[in-house]
Design goal:
309 residues; mainly alpha; rod-shaped
Length: 309
């Protein structure tokens, strides 16, 4: 017997509800994996730029230290005539273009810093021109003339302009470093929160799916038990029920019935052997009137006689 359409529809709905949390958990895991991969990519990018800013700050400090070394050694030479100081100054001057080009290369992604470096290049040209002028003054007129030139404050102004530009450059890089450090920390936090939330939701959905599967299995077990019980009761009932059906051959005179084996039986015996019915013999009014003399001789009332099979 095929299941009813309502049962089939209900079973499909239950199967859908049973698999829905599992499908949602799988979809959530895929989504978490995708977002995690994207977050990790963004985090990796933030780490790279943070390190880049840090390297730019170090490069700016190295350039500034080199400039200060040039100025210090140059002044030692023009005031004391120290040849070693002049040699050290010249080495620092040769190193300056390399350090400057490094700053330019590292800040190509930042137009504002590139503009500062252009301004710094002009300021450093003024610094080096002033340094060469001091050296010429020292060679021609001596240290006293150099001191008189320095007292005008021109050197401090020229050098201060270059140092201010370097300070602005380093401050901007420090600001970028702080922002990128915050982005990196935010990336770590978002990735951690996403993984925790995704894991909790996935576990919750899987637990829900397990509960729904357990409930569905228990329901089906109960339904199976009830079905088997009903089948057993029906089989027991059918075993107890005896019915009469088909064409029954009966004698037109004595009313005997021929059974399946070909023997003739009384109606009472035939019906009793094939059903749960019993007979209680009596006499109808017509027969009582017709056979009243026989009944009187037998001493019977004609109402009932003992039951016979």
């Amino acid at each position: 017997m095929s299941p009813a359409p309502e049962q089939t529809t209900r079973r499909k709905s239950l199967d859908l509800l049973r698999w829905l949390p599992v499908a949602a958990a799988v979809a959530l895991m895929v989504m978490v994996a995708f977002i995690s991969a994207r977050t990790m990519s963004e985090l990796k990018n933030a780490i790279y730029w943070r390190q880049h800013s840090f390297q730019e700050i170090l490069a700016a400090h190295a350039y500034e230290d080199n400039v200060m070394s040039i100025q210090s050694n140059m002044r030692d030479f023009v005031t004391t005539g120290d040849a070693a100081a002049l040699a050290s100054c010249q080495r620092s001057i040769k190193l300056e273009p390399q350090l400057f080009d490094q700053l330019v290369s590292m800040t190509r992604d930042n137009p504002a810093q590139q503009q500062r470096l252009k301004t710094l290049s002009v300021a450093m040209k003024d610094v080096f021109d002033y340094d060469r002028r001091l050296i010429e003054i020292y060679k021609q007129r001596g240290a006293e003339a150099v001191l008189q030139t320095e007292q005008t404050g021109e050197g401090r102004t020229i050098t201060g302009r270059a140092r201010d530009i370097l300070t602005e450059f380093s401050a901007e890089e420090q600001k970028l470093l702080s922002a990128r450090d915050a982005a990196e920390q935010s990336g770590y936090f978002n990735a951690e929160r996403l993984l925790i939330l995704g894991s909790v939701l996935t576990v919750a959905l899987l637990v829900l799916a397990n509960l729904m599967v357990g409930r569905e299995m228990a329901r089906r077990q109960r339904a199976e038990i009830d079905r088997e019980k009903l089948i057993g009761e029906l089989q027991q009932t059918l075993a107890q029920v005896k019915t009469l059906s088909g064409l029954i051959p009966i004698c037109a005179w004595c009313k005997s019935v021929r059974n399946d084996q070909g023997y003739w039986q009384s109606v009472e015996q035939y019906v009793h052997s094939r059903s749960e019915a019993s007979f209680s013999h009596s006499i109808c009014p017509s027969c009582r009137e017709k056979f009243k003399e026989e009944i009187a001789k037998a001493g019977l009332s004609g109402e009932k006689s003992p039951a016979q099979n």
